[in-house]
Automatic annotation (TrEMBL):
This is Glyoxylase, beta-lactamase superfamily II. CDD domains: POD-like_MBL-fold (cd07724). It comes from Shimia aestuarii. Keywords: Metal-binding. Pfam families: Lactamase_B. One of its GO terms (biological process) is glutathione metabolic process. GO terms for molecular function: metal ion binding; sulfur dioxygenase activity. Residues 14-204 form the Metallo-beta-lactamase domain.
Length: 287
């Protein structure tokens, strides 16, 4: 079964959102949508999400699921906005509770912030499967970048979020709280154990030296042969050393502070104050 996949690239955050459609019908899932956020002004915008909604409406699609590969640290999720417009259930990994616990502390949230994942419609764990129309979607737990990362395998397509990137770029960082390069390496082996011809769709692309175009689709065979971090000839210990050393040089993503506060609430802003105004926090010297 080969789902129809439409990609939407967000220039501001290098994120790729996907609409995955049942080739035999109109059901679809939307994976990793983006709510635009301008940090300087504190303003949100729905331009990126509206493009996806327009695609759904133009093609008469039925949105069954709004799937998150993980709690993103570089962009805000538009899942609740899209849900309000075109429906669908919001799902994420069960280990969201670990992420909520960690960042509930970082952002000094009160008891009104539930750490049980109840903000989401569905929490998935390894081995779960859901239906999107006639398409079966199998869930792999692929932690390492974060504790709650999932890979969604739908027919011949695997949506790997931030685990693997394009073969010439490598893999995702593992230095956020709860991340682990060793865990990521093991998770990647699960993905590489899928059939060689499996299409892999990655959650970000930053180009790579010598490549002019953004790209987001590759295969298991290509990753095994050529991934610069975990492909042919690269062993686990070398990967861990490389990943940890490189991560120590990386700046935090520009939108990590707003992204975490919103995404750990399933894409909702924190509760407004008595005046109806919404505020995000900046924890000082915490990240
Ligand atoms: Fe991420």
């Amino acid at each position: 079964m080969k789902p129809d996949v439409t990609a939407f690239f967000d220039n501001a955050t290098n994120t790729i959102s996907f609409v995955v459609k049942d080739p035999a019908g109109t059901s679809c899932a939307i994976i990793d949508s983006v709510l635009d956020f301008d940090y300087s002004s504190g303003r949100t915008d729905t331009k990126s999400a509206d493009e996806i909604i327009a695609h759904v409406q133009k093609n008469g699609l039925k949105v069954e699921w709004l799937l998150e590969s993980h709690v993103h640290a570089d962009h805000l999720s538009a899942a609740p906005y899209i849900q309000e417009k075109v429906g669908g259930k919001i799902g994420i990994g069960k280990n969201i509770t670990v992420v909520q616990d960690t960042f509930g502390k970082v952002f000094n949230e009160g008891t009104e912030f539930q750490r049980d994942g109840s903000q989401f419609d569905e929490l998935f764990t390894e081995g779960d499967s859901i239906m999107i129309g006639q398409m079966r979607c199998d869930v792999l737990h692929t932690p390492g970048h974060t504790p709650a990362c999932l890979t969604y395998v739908i027919g011949d397509a695997a949506f790997v979020g931030d685990t693997l990137f394009m073969p010439d770029f490598g893999t995702a960082r593992c230095d956020f709280p709860g991340g682990s390069s060793e865990t990521l390496y093991n998770s990647i082996q699960k993905i590489l154990a899928l059939p060689d011809e499996t299409r892999i769709f990655v959650g970000h692309d930053y180009k790579a030296p010598g490549r002019d175009e953004y790209a987001w689709e590759t295969t298991v065979a290509e990753q095994k042969a050529a991934n610069v971090h975990v492909g042919e000839g690269k062993d686990k210990d070398a990967f861990i050393k490389m990943r940890d050393e490189r991560d120590a040089t990386l700046d935090m993503p520009k939108l990590i502070i707003p992204s975490l506060q919103v995404n750990m609430r399933a894409g909702q802003m924190p509760e407004p104050d008595e005046e109806g105004d919404v505020f995000l926090k900046v924890p000082v010297n915490k990240l």
